[in-house]
Structures are given as C-alpha cells and as structure tokens.
Amino acid sequence: MESLEIILMDFSKSNLDQFIKEDFNIQLNQIRSSYFYDNSRGEDTEFQDISSLEEILSPRGTGNLFLSNLNLGHTFSDVMIVFSFDEKDGNMTMNFPEEELFSGGKSERTLRAEGLIRYIFDMMDKYEIKKVRVGYEPATDDDTCLVEINNGMKNNFNDIVTKLLG
User: Whose CA, among 38, 48, 67, 136, lies 20 to 30 Å from 160?
Assistant: First the structure.
C-alpha cells in the first residue's frame, strides 16, 4: 500500500496556529499520536499540551501528528501531518493511504479529487501558499509528484483533477 502526500510548501509560520485551529479544527478524539520537541523547555511534548504551534516550532522545529481522520475537502482516514519549519516558514506534509482517494468508482474518485483540489485552492488563497505538490510519497520528487499546483492555476481546475486521477 502506497501513501499519497500533499505538501503545502513555504507555509508562513505566523499562519500556523490559525490554520490548525480554524481550518483543521482538530479534536482530541481524532489524535492517535503526536510528537513535538519543545525547544524552550528542552523536552518532548504532545499536540494536546501545546498552546501555540508557532512557538513550539521556534526558532525552528519539526513535529508530527497522526489523526484517525481529517477533512481536506473530503474526510480522509489515517492522516499523518509532518511539520518542518525554519525561522519564518516551512512545509506541512499530509500523508494518507492512496485508497482513500483512489478507491471506488470513477464518479466517487472524481468527487473526492474535486473536493481536495477545491480545498487546496481555498487554503492557498487564505494563507498565501504559493505552491502545493500532490503525489506519491515522496511528492518532492518529480517522478512521484502527480501534480504541482501554484497560484495561477485556478482556471485549470479540471486539468488538475484529471492529472491527479491519472
């Protein structure tokens, strides 16, 4: 079983708390596991004990959060979010099993892909994300990236969905 990966690239750390609290709206019962390192206290910590991801990932930091499900325009199961941030910005990577997008009939797959792409466009607008890569893990590699989305691609919605579904 392969994993699909969505990478929000060069995400501004100053938008991180709003994004996680308002857009992801993660509830405690969704969390299967988490790991963050608190630089200020010099110890490991868990997501539910963090008041600000921006602070915990400062001056730079990484962490991960494994969720039973997450709505990304469609509710996907078994989603791992990996945070990797420098001083000002970083990448947020979401992984989930490929069958979460590619199972079922053509119309079902198309609806999930359309919901995901709409969600990505909405988040790109709201948080000034310049580039998103979607593909098989690792989507950073051109060979495994199915589609790279940038700000000027809204008029290509159907082409992006088609590329994503192969």
Answer: 67
User: Residue 47 phi/psi, 5° resolution?
Assistant: -55, -45
List phi, psi (to 5°) of 69: -160, 160
Closest-CA residue to 13 (of 48, 56, 45, 44) = 56
Long-range contact set of residues 109-114: C-beta below 8 Å, sequence gap at least 24 = 109/165, 110/161, 110/165, 111/74, 112/73, 112/74, 113/161, 113/164, 113/165, 114/73, 114/157, 114/161
- Counting every residue written for the chain, the total comes to 166
Distance CA 112, CA 118 (A): 10
pLDDT tens for residues 6-18? 999 999 999 999 9
Under DSSP, is residue 107 helix (H, G, I), strand (E, B) or coil? Answer: helix
Phi/psi at 37 (nearest 5 deg)?
A: -110, 125
pLDDT confidence of residue 3: 97
Question: Contact 53/26 with Cβ under 8 angstroms?
Answer: no
